[in-house]
Amino acid sequence: MTDAGRRLGPWTLHELLGSGGNAEVYRATDTVGREVALKVIKARKPEREPYRRFVREIEVLQALEDKTGILPVVDAHLPANPSREDRPWLAMSIATPLAGALQGEPLELVVTAVAAIAATLARLHEQGIGHRDIKPSNLHRLADDWLIGDFGLVAGPDTRGLTPGDRPLGPVHFMPYEMIVNPQTADPKAAGRLFAREDAVGLGDRPAVSARRSPAHRDTRARGRRRPTPPKRPPAGRAC
Asked: Is residue 40 part of a domain?
């Protein structure tokens, strides 16, 4: 059961666009006709990790001076005491997911998309910001722009760890090996490189896979892929 038809702030929820463990995303409109993708967080306890990550996501996005290459944030609501009646949400521009934007497109457009996404990641990492959740579903096209969205796992220059240090952190099937083996020592920003290993690993083939393969083929491939078996992890240290 979804909340379609419900009002949150100025927004009326319509169909569900997607959902995950911590949030649901709806198409929503306001009274003047603006249309957005409204991310509604499920967490209702502000001291818990999911809500704290949502707060961090909004704070990092709003603090960016140069938002080029970032999925635009239209509006946000962060109640001090979230509840069923007063839920936290984030309104974003509606964009086309990468898989749909590149399906059947020529290689030249794939290269253009990769270059734009890599340039955005490089600029973020120069500012000490690591996205840590780069995967096709978090990459988008809006008009002629290639954009990065969903900063729910973002790490900033002054952010404190929220996830226990021995717990893998990142997108399943797209997570770099070091985040599986020892996430507490993996550097989300990798200072001095063009862009961080965590964000860059596999970036080159993700848009190409989206362009060449059908969704059914990609899903089968993902389900059949085995995650590497990590060695015994060291005792939990810093959070990430």
From this structure: yes
Pairing of β 73-77 and β 23-29: unpaired
Q: Are 34 and 81 in contact (CB under 8 A)?
A: no
pTM of the model: 0.73
For 136-156, how does the pLDDT look when each residue is reduced to its tens digit (9 = 90+)?
989 999 999 999 999 988 887
Question: Which residues are 97's β-sheet partners?
Answer: 140
> What is the torsion angle, in degrees rounded to the nearest 10, for the CA atoms of residue 181, residue 46, residue 71 and residue 150?
30
Q: Which value, to the nearest 10 degrees, does the dihedral of the CA atoms of residues 197, 202, 205, 207 take?
A: -80
Q: Please identify, among 39, 65, 92, the residue that sits at the C-terminal boundary of a domain.
A: 92
Task: Work out the number of other CB atoms within 10 angstroms of the CB of residue 110.
Answer: 21
Q: Give the tens place of pLDDT for each residue, 102-132.
A: 999 999 999 999 999 999 999 999 998 988 8
Rounded distance between C-alpha atoms, residue 219 and residue 199, angstroms:
21
Catalytic residues: 133
What would the DSSP string read from start to end of 15-66?
EEEEE-SSEEEEEEE-TT--EEEEEEE----TTSHHHHHHHHHHHHHHH-S-
**Domain count of the fold of the chain:** 2
The answer to whether the beta carbons of residues 240 and 165 sit under 8 Å apart is yes
Q: Are 211 and 123 in a shared domain?
A: yes
Pairing of strands 23-29, 11-19: antiparallel
Q: Is residue 61 part of a domain?
A: yes
- Whether 236 maps to a domain, the answer reads no
Residues 135, 203: Cα–Cα separation, whole Å:
8
CB atoms under 10 Å from CB of 209, counted, come to 17
> Is 230 within the bounds of a domain?
no
